[in-house]
Design brief:
This protein is 30% helix and 34% strand. With 217 residues, it is α/β, with parallel strands linked by helices. The chain has a single domain, classed as Rossmann fold (3-Layer(aba) Sandwich).
Amino acid sequence: MTVHNLGESNSLMNKFIAEIRDVNIQKDAMRFRRNVERIGEVLGYEMSKSFQYESSKVTTPLGTKEMSLPTDKIVLCSILRAGLPLHQGLLNYFDEAENAFISAYRHHKGDEDAFEVIVNYFAAPSLDGKILVLTDPMLATGRTLENVLKSLKKHGTPSQIHIVSVIGAQAGIEYVQNVFPENTHLWISAIDAELNARGYIIPGIGDAGDLAYGQKI
């Protein structure tokens, strides 16, 4: 798997990352969602440079112009509910993409640290020959993405797989590298070193779904 860590270079995106981490700013759920959306736009723009293009003539009021335009068919697949703002950021740029949604969540039996990932809803078009873009804002242990990949197999074989995440843990990235195809690409804006006992990224941001949409029971 090829890892594209955009956080290694200075850019305006660092400001968006800083704000979603900040315990005071992240209390504003609307700003949190918009910052994640903007991060998705930046990651999507960078990812678009790796796709296929072909020359096409565009007619203007005063003539014609040869331009290179994208040709790939793309399916954006997001993990509910935390992935929705990131999904929207990508959809702002890939406005002709097809869309897929999957519900995957951690189930802690009792109050134990150990958990299993449960997938109980999935809707997607055919993936055959298309670029699959999986969006998961927090790549923590990597087990959610693993279960999503297993669920997707019955919908066809994509030509490429790209993962888009906001923040990831090094251990989770290494786990994903072992279970996804070798030619997978990860586009990410920051990588943190640690996971705590319950599998949350340290320092991370907290629970992205709760910050975006409110606490769940």
